[in-house]
Amino acid sequence: MQQGPGSSPRLVRLGAEWAGWVFKHAEPHQLRAMAPLLLGRLAGALGLDDGEVAAGSQGVGSALLSEAEARGHLFGALASLAQRLPEAFQVGAEERQRNARGTPKGG
63 in a domain, yes or no? Predict the structure, then answer.
């Protein structure tokens, strides 16, 4: 769900919808295993840095609406995770960033 050069708001929205579905339907042990990585990716897609939302990108018309819709789905996925696994949000910012980059602990 990291936004790269080829990511569109639609692709981000679909990824967030998928993550929300996973957060709602995953078994608890599976959710605990995948939550740190997906939380980091969702936060990265939102542009969250130290708990603040970065300014949205410039856009007009339907592009702006699509981005707003994608962000809404990202926040919805985060809300689903918060309901099922609130302890996932107690991880420090450093570890979230490490998980978002895919860097192993201690590396």
Answer: yes
- The whole domain housing 58 covers 9-101
- pLDDT tens, 80-104? 999 999 888 876 656 666 767 776 6
> For the chain, what is the domain count?
1
pLDDT per position as a tens digit, 67-84? 888 889 999 999 999 999
The whole-model pTM stands at 0.66
**What is the C-alpha separation between 43 and 2, in angstroms, rounded?**
9
The answer to whether position 18 is within a domain reads: yes
Q: Is residue 30 part of a domain?
A: yes
